[in-house]
Task: structure prediction
Amino acid sequence: MTQYEHALAGAITPEMRRVAQREQRDAEFIRAEAAAGRLVIPANIRHLSPADASAARLDPCGIGRALTTKINANIGASPLSSCKAQELLKLQWAVKYGADAVMDLSTGGDLDDIRTHIIANSTVPIGTVPIYSMIVARCVEELTVADILATVEKQARQGVDFFTIHAGLLRRHLPLIGKRKMGIVSRGGSLLAKWMVHHGRENPMYEAFDEISAICRQYDVTYSLGDGLRPGCLADASDEAQFAELDTLGELVRRARASGVQVMVEGPGHVPFDQIEMNMTRQQKVCDGSPFYVLGPVVTDVFPGYDHIVSAIGATAAAYWGASFLCYVTPTEHLALPAPEDVRQGCIAYKIAAHAADVARHLPAARDWDDRMSEARANFDWKRQFELAFDGEAARAIRKRDNVDADADYCSMCGRDWCAVRISKQVVAWNTEHGTPNTEH
Result:
């Protein structure tokens, strides 16, 4: 039985208890949210209990609106760059800097070996886009349903926790692509569109959806229904193509649940800031509250090299209005394959976005961290500030830069005599000693 089926049956699994512990929530609450389909726990049974005793065991993580916002880091080798060792370093940096899950999007090198290596070293859920492996050493036009099912089963057996399956892009959607500036920007979506044009047939992922679901159910792999028609620029956002596919994804959510499979839905993409709320609420309605997993959104197209910042602005709004899971964007988006430092910057930007949204949503205990930091700042307790800081190493290095005494009750921004916090303390002390000043004269 999958986590979803256990939840429907009223059973609280060890994974649900672990999620409850991490989220400081009641286990029955977690079960009820999972049963409603509003929460998923990507936890392949092979990753929970690996055959190799030396391999890392998954630490279950919950994704849903009732929980803290989660972030995902994309890694993966390309035909032009990286290797297994480099991808392992990216995984380690991603987890160190806050990633709750990691997707292996490798399209080059020995994909099976890289995937096995990453899963064996990961305590966080690992996702893949199986179609990438399906077209190694073959053209996409040669892809068969048998190839699809064989690859999905192989990756499920390896321990992959969630699959991006682009089953919502249908033949009837293809004429809508011509109305766009950027067309299709999803790799998986473009490959399947090419297959449909070549064969004059429906999307094979859609036609084989029930068979794929049976494999996902066997290993408890969570669906991440891919948005093959996500907008790749502001001009294409919220268009007919995007929402036509979304309606199909809503249908597939219901089919996945009927098969006992956990399911979340992927979303845009490039979206103007003022359209984010509408996109989030529309997905929640169409997909019956299924967790929404969004890329950004990127809110302007003209800052290459800084898209981790651009998209974190959109991600904060998305998490506030309805997203449960944020796929990071790195500084190399639209430019190159991310290096470990790019992974670090992307994770930090998205950790900021997720936490800011959680504070704004008044989630239980979300602001406690901020309040503890404020107390440490008010007390000039630098040691405590660095302990509380998300990246204390970076904060400590900046503090040291101007050779200010480590325990000084000021920083180099204002110096001792101009420090507002010091002056404020003096004012409070004077008021305590002398009482409130007489303001009548």
